[in-house]
C-alpha cells in the first residue's frame, strides 16, 4: 500500500486530492497538512512513501519544507503541486530535492501516474516546464538585488523611487536594469516584467 501525505492550505483542494488518491487501489492518504511547518511534523510522524505538497504555503513555503524534510530524510519523495508554470520555481524545487512537479490544472489527469512514477524513482516534470528549463539552462541567473529592482519595476515605480526605497543611486538602478534586460533578453522594462512573471522570477 502506497502511503501519501498531502499538503495544501486549501481544505477543498486537499479533500479533492485525497478523494482521487483514496479511490486508487494500493494507495491511501495517511495524513494531511495545511502549512509547511505542519508538513514537516506530519512527515516525521507518518514517514509517507510520497508527499504531494503545494509550493506556496503559510509559515514555511513548500521549498523550505522540502529542505527541512530532506535534511533528516534524504530519500523522501516529494511532488510539488502548483499553479505556477515558470521554470524558475521548478528549478528551485528540484534543487531543494523535489522528485516531481505537477501543475494544478493537470491534477486529475496526471496525479496518480505522477505519484506512481515518483515512488518508482522516476522524476516527473510537465513537458512545457521541462522545455522552458532546457531553453534557459545556460542563462545567467538574476541576482537577488536584480529581482528586488524588478519587483519595484513591476509595481510601476520610477528609477528615482526605486533608488530611494533601496537606498541606492539612480545610476546604480540604471545599471541593474541594464543587466536585467540583458539577462532576460528583454527589449524594455515592461517586456522584462512580462518575461519575469512568465518564468516565475517574481513568485515568492
Give a structural overview.
This protein has 10 helices and 5 strands. The chain is of the alpha/beta class and 204 residues long. It folds into 2 domains: 134 residues, Response regulator (Rossmann fold); 56 residues, Winged helix-like DNA-binding domain superfamily/Winged helix DNA-binding domain (Arc Repressor Mutant, subunit A, Orthogonal Bundle). Helix 4 links the parallel strand 4 and strand 5. The two termini are 36 Å apart.
Rg, rounded, reads 19 Å
Order of helices and strands: EHEHEHEHEHHHHHH
Q: First CA to last CA: what distance?
A: 36 Å
Annotated CATH architecture of the largest domain: 3-Layer(aba) Sandwich
**Overall outline:** elongated
Q: Indicate the low-confidence ranges by residue numbers.
A: none
Which fold does the CATH topology of the largest domain refer to? Answer: Rossmann fold
Helical coverage, percent range: 40-55%
Total count of domains: 2
CATH class of the largest domain: Alpha Beta
Name of the CATH homologous superfamily of the largest domain: Response regulator
Major beta sheet, specifics? 5 strands, parallel
How are strands sequenced across the largest beta sheet? 2-1-3-4-5
Count of helical segments?
Answer: 10
**Nearest-integer average pLDDT:** 89
Alpha-beta classification: alpha/beta
Assess the beta-strand content as a share of residues.
Answer: 5-15%
The count of strands amounts to: 5
